[in-house]
Design a protein that fits this description.
With about 120 residues, the protein is mainly β. The chain has strands at about 1-5, 10, 15-25, 35-40, 45-50, 55-60, 65-70, 75-80, 90-100, 110, 115-120. Strands 2, 4, 5, 6, 9, 10 and 11 form a 7-stranded mixed β-sheet that branches. A hairpin with a 6-residue loop joins strand 5 (about 45-50) and strand 6 (about 55-60).
Amino acid sequence: VQLQASGGGLVQAGGPLRLSCAASGRSFSSKVMGWFRQAPGKERDIVAAITWNGAGTYYADSVKGRFTISRDNAKNTVYLQMNSLKPEDTAVYYCAADPGGSWSRADAYNYWGQGTQVTVSS
């Protein structure tokens, strides 16, 4: 599986942004997908994850109620809709696929996209 994240940019606090992660590979639709983020000097942390059919989702406490993860298996794409953005959401956002263990652990994921920068101005 190869992953390509896009949609990052500069946005004012309170605004929305939608990230996309396009995947190649026939096995995409069977894999758990996740979004992580990493701010300068910090660890890469889970933002959200979604099961293969979209029936199950996981969100970090810091984004619950503001972010929504979804997927379209027909398009081999996973999305992260981010609303009510805050300056502390500023980070490089990565999509990842196929965790071998805990969804929330970066080291559990086998495939990674290249990252897209999200900057939220106050």
